[in-house]
Design goal:
By secondary structure, the protein is of the alpha/beta class. Helices cover about 25% and strands about 35% of the residues.
Amino acid sequence: MKNHSLVRNKKIKYHLKIISFLVILTLIFTVNNLVLCKQVNADLIYVDGSAIVGYSTIQEGIDAAISGDTIYVCNGTYFENIVIDKPISLIGEDSSNTIIDGRGAGNTIKVNADYVKIKGFTIQHSGLIYPSSGINLSSDYNVVENNIIMNNFYGMTMYHSSYNTIQNNTIQNDDHCGIYMSASTNNSILNNIIQNHNYNGVGVYDSSDANLIMNNEFSSNNFCGVNIRISADNNIIGNNFTGNNIGIHIPDSSNTVNSNNFSGNNVDIDLESILSNTEFLLIIGIVIFFIILGLTFYIARVKKIK
């Protein structure tokens, strides 16, 4: 009996040693991961989802920041609807693995402040009711770069928002448009992949003038790659348009289209027909002439019957 007890105790000690070793390894691995995230820069505000390194939510990090701060967000999925109301930089650890999910409600990210930078995130699942979007800009001089923006109602919306730079993003699979602009001027949309939207890759509306759309890849957008309406002096240069219904729709020659490549679109460039003032007055004159002529015949016929 004594021998059996000794053997059993040795086995228990052996198993305890293995369990302890595994626990220690797990702790080392976890700590190393946290340190890797933490050691980027001692001056940053950190968000890691667990409050071990920094704040547990991105909004908490933003609320704690002051103008000019950088918030570094470690890999993970953050189910939040974020409002940025101060000039800060919001940086994700890795665009494929640092995910902001809007939970199907409202804007995933709303930017009210100027001079905001958003970089290194997957931004997804805004609400599916107008005008919800992955990123909504209603401010100026912002930078949105190196993000994956997908599966929103609009990928991005810009209202009265100017001098922004949107570059090196992948914007895809949004319900309506990849980027929608209204009354937004002098923005630069550069080197993005914009694909698989039910309507437009980029929609430029309502006096959104003097924007630069250059070196982007537009593919498989079901209405237009770039759709310009009631806007002037926009420059569409050096883009590739592949497999869209319409590559570019432009209202008139005040917008510049230059050095773009087209492949497999139903229509490459759709130029909206707009009447000149002379043509419009001529048509009005013809209509009035026929109205008078018809009335003359009608009056003459009534007199003849009497």
